[in-house]
Amino acid sequence: MQNKEHSWLNLPSLSLPVKALFTGYLLVVGLGLMMAGGQIMLTHGMADGKFGLSMDDIVYSYYGNREGSKLEAKLNGSMKDKATPEENLAMIKWARNGASQEEWQSTIQPIVDQKCAMCHAHIPTLPNVTKYEEMQKVAAVDHGAEIGSLTRISHIHLFGIAFIFFFIGLIFSLSVGFKKWIKALLIFIPFAFLIVDVAAWWLTKMNPGFAYFVIIGGFGYSLASSIMIFSSLYQMWIMPWRGMRSDTNAWRDN
Predict the structure, then answer these.
(1) 10 Å Cβ neighbour count for 117?
(2) How far apart are CA 131 and CA 137, in angstroms?
(3) What are the E-state strand segments in 22-125?
(4) Where are the membrane-spanning stretches (predicted)?
(5) At residue 131, what are phi and psi to the nearest 5 degrees?
């Protein structure tokens, strides 16, 4: 009896236009996932002042560094090269000493106007640290991600990434050669680990011990998605070509 998997629509037998459509989507999504990884390295990965994602980076991003301020974390991390070491040290000491308005006007504001205003005074998504009231908030003890910000990022992440996984899974569902339970597991894993990832943000906000689950969630859905993307591309382009070569060789042998 012919395998039902091969008797209907599947990746190797798709028409050229459909293969082009699916391939374009998978390539763009794959590149997007790589860019997302790079963005994480340049933002969360610099939370502890060192390049590369670590447990401290996750803890500082969501739970915060309760021994210091967001200003100090940024000046020791992603903003370290924006001012001189002496200027960074002056701002850190100012924050640790209570962020007084007198010292702000005499010492800190001139540094901020010269080194920070070019971005923070003109980009709406960044805090306007040229204003004392905003700088006070940044100089306060770092309690990690704010609830409002975490809520906004969570719902965007869940909706947006779920759509990506849906179409990757839909394309992969047309693959051949996988046992049904393996195929179903690979399709479901990204959704499950996406929930683990986002839930871990909130749990880490309350307790830094949950930071491990952030890395587990991100690694889990990235690995499953990569397997589905590469398997789908292989079956659309390489598998039919290899099958055609086998048929040609068999004909020549006869």
Answers:
(1) 14
(2) 10
(3) none
(4) 20-42, 156-178, 184-203, 210-234
(5) -95, 135
Residue holding tokens 């923070």? Answer: 120
CB-CB neighbours of 86 under 10 Å:
8
Cα–Cα distance for residue pair 46/195, rounded to 1 Å: 24
Q: How far apart are the first and last CA of the chain?
A: 26
Report which residue type is found at 189.
Answer: I
Distance between CA 127 and CA 189 in Å, rounded?
37
The token pair that represents 28 in the structure block: 């763009």
φ, ψ at 120 (rounded to 5°): -70, -20
| Structure tokens belonging to residue 109 | 């504001």
Residue 244: how many other CB atoms lie within 10 Å: 10
- How far apart CA 87 and CA 66 sit, in angstroms, is 23
* Secondary structure of residue 141 in the 3-state scheme: strand
Q: Within its chain, how far is the Cα of 158 from the centroid?
A: 12
d(CA 171, CA 27) in angstroms, rounded, equals 13
Neighbours of 126 (CB within 10 A): 12
Give the count of beta carbons closer than 10 Å to the beta carbon of residue 64: 22
Within the chain, what is the greatest distance between any pair of CA atoms?
94
User: What are the pLDDT tens digits along the chain (254 aa)?
Assistant: 444 444 458 999 999 999 999 999 999 999 999 998 888 887 776 666 666 778 888 888 898 877 778 788 788 877 888 889 899 889 988 988 888 888 998 999 999 999 988 888 888 878 888 899 988 888 887 778 889 989 999 999 999 999 999 999 999 999 999 999 999 999 999 999 999 999 999 999 999 999 999 999 999 999 999 999 999 999 999 987 765 444 434 323 33
Q: What is the model's pTM?
A: 0.73
